Amino acid sequence: MEINKKSIDKNFLYKEIEYIDISSVGTGQLLETAIYGVKSAPSRARRLVNDKDTRGSGTIFKSVTKDDMYGLKILVPPETLRKGFEEIIAPIFAELKNLIVRNVNLRHTRDLLLPKLISGEVDELKIETGGLVE
After folding, report:
1. What end-to-end distance do the CA atoms of the chain give, in Å?
2. Would 24 disulfide with which of 31, 71, 92, 108, CB 3.0-4.6 Å?
3. Per residue in 73-122, pLDDT tens?
4. Largest distance between two CA atoms of the chain
């Protein structure tokens, strides 16, 4: 069996990971999750999971099986309520996505400019005034 070696790297879009430790999963229930910063997360939390990564329910590797998932009871709201929720939440998620992209761009710009500001290669006043200072 080939092991999936893919994991989250420094270019991951989000700052936090919500991790489900297998010890917190019981039959038909999820007891808790843990939130880790991407940089401080243990390697097991940074691992990207593929559909084929399930190892069965043996004593060495405990896992949530498809049968466990099919056994869960999920409340499904009426179609009108779901559509109303989607109408409210869609612009919020669009803004969230926009802010995430902007934040990534700002971090990239900071990482490019900060060393130049510290070294004196770029003058702070020229940046603040759009380069109009002589």
Report:
1. 66
2. 31
3. 888 899 999 999 999 999 999 999 999 999 999 999 889 888 888 888 87
4. 72
